Amino acid sequence: MALFIYGTATNTGKGFFTNEDRRAFHLRGFPADVWVIGNNERGAYWLAEKNGVEKTKSEAQALVTAEVEAHQAAWDALSDEEKAEPNRGRPTDITLP
Amino acid sequence: MAGYNTIRGLRVKYLSADPATSEDGQVWYNSTTGNLRVEGMVLAAAWASGATTNVAAYQLAGAGTQTAALAMGGANQTGTGSLTSTEEYDGSSWTTQNGIPGATSYMGGCGVQTAAIIAGGGTIPNYHQTTTREYDGTNWSTGGALNAATGSTGQIIGIESAALISGGDRPGVSPRFIANAEEYNGSAWTAVTVLPATRSQQGTAGIQTAGLVFGGTGSVTDTTLEYDGTNWTSGGNLPATRKGLGGSGTQTSAIGFGGNPGSTPGSLDITVNYDGTSWSVIPATLANAKQLMGNSSSAPSTSAISFKGTSPPAFNTTEEFTGASTQTKNITTS
């Protein structure tokens, strides 16, 4: 059985994920509202309850990559002076687990 | 097979109600509810989502508690400008308040929702200044100026009338990173014993007379410093180097969260716990890895709050930490 479920869901704020959720299954957010969720009953229920859309890993990766590339393009468009600021690094590529 | 009596040295009591006092591992039968009960089940620490903020930002100042927090200023989503944004959190929602008189980012903050300060920071790209601003829950006013311009100090330690700021980053100035430390009494800053080495983007916790500074950069570090109101001494090292991390708690019970390892780009979701002597990684992770977030250095380590921050890009999300606890649970077979 796969370790993770992949999906998209919009973080609606308070109650979107609870302490009980975090104790019951792995949950990690990524750009483009992509979530990597522990593959158990509680995790699957959470995604459904949040009106999430399940994705394949490759679909989820494509969404994350597109979002990161958009932010990288925005960074590339900055002036050399702005790019030189060490606290504003170029967004890095993300590989989903 | 050994029975409970043999293992624990106690019989399982048959009670009409839960005992007024009980100890970890004690088991009893509640005849009223029909439940076999056990005391001391560990409930692991965890981060849960809080309300989304109105404005995304990073390198902002934070203050308050999990149910009465303040988010002040910061860098905008692309990091190309600074914000005047002030938001108050009541544990359920963020509300926009009167803005800071001047856009400010890369500053530190401390205090409570009705008596907070921000100091240092400035506007991008020259985010180092001596300005202090005080917030009374409604309006902003100007406080006493720092003796040395600074920025990227991490959050200020303490409260409005007894604060401690240390280190910092001054882009365009040589030397860029400083070791200065200053105490605020509600109206003026006084230079105090400098840090043993330069440091910026550090995690902070504690109070003015029992402060904690950990991680940070200039040269990214895993070291911890403890301040007693006069001198800085070394504490236990973080499990690994960190900068741009959040912190909450006291000198003897603190947590650090998120940040960047310094050696590689990207943000961390890791939470670490300090017991006054040593740091350890705990299983509770932020749902979104982030750095340079808003947080309150004086919030209890068991109820910390992390808001905004960047991975990059900047977030408008909030996460609320609940420390590990024990509770009484029913013993079931399902």
Topology of chain A as a string of helices (H) and strands (E): EHEEHEHH
Give the mean pLDDT of chain A: 94
Distance between the termini of chain A: 15 Å
- Work out the helix count of chain B: 1
Number of helices of chain A: 4
Describe the structure in brief.
With 97 residues, chain A is of the alpha+beta class. Chain A is 40% helix and 18% strand. Chain A is built from four helices and four strands.
Report on the architecture of this protein.
The complex is a heterodimer of chains A (97) and B (334). Chain A is α+β, with helices and mostly antiparallel strands and 97 residues long. Chain A has one domain. Helix content of chain A is 40%, strand content 18%. Chain A has helices spanning 19-24, 41-49, 57-76, 80-83; strands at residues 4-8, 27-30, 34-38, 53-55. A four-stranded antiparallel β-sheet of chain A has the order 2-3-1-4, sandwiched between helices. The longest helix of chain A has 20 residues, at 57-76. In chain A, 28% of the residues are buried. Chain B has two domains: 4-43, no CATH class; 46-322, Kelch-type beta propeller (Neuraminidase, 6 Propeller). A four-stranded mixed β-sheet of chain B has the order 1-2-3-28, with no helix packed on it. In chain B, strands 4-27-26-25 form a four-stranded antiparallel β-sheet, with no helix packed on it. A four-stranded antiparallel β-sheet of chain B has the order 5-6-7-8, with no helix packed on it. Chain B has 334 residues and is mainly beta. Chain B has one helix at residues 4-8; strands at residues 13-15, 27-30, 35-43, 46-50, 61-65, 68-72, 86-89, 94-96, 108-112, 115-119, 132-135, 140-142, 157-159, 162-169, 177-184, 189-192, 203-207, 210-214, 224-227, 232-234, 246-250, 253-257, 271-274, 279-282, 294-295, 305-307, 318-322, 325-330. Chain B is elongated. The interface between A and B is medium-sized, with 29 and 37 residues.
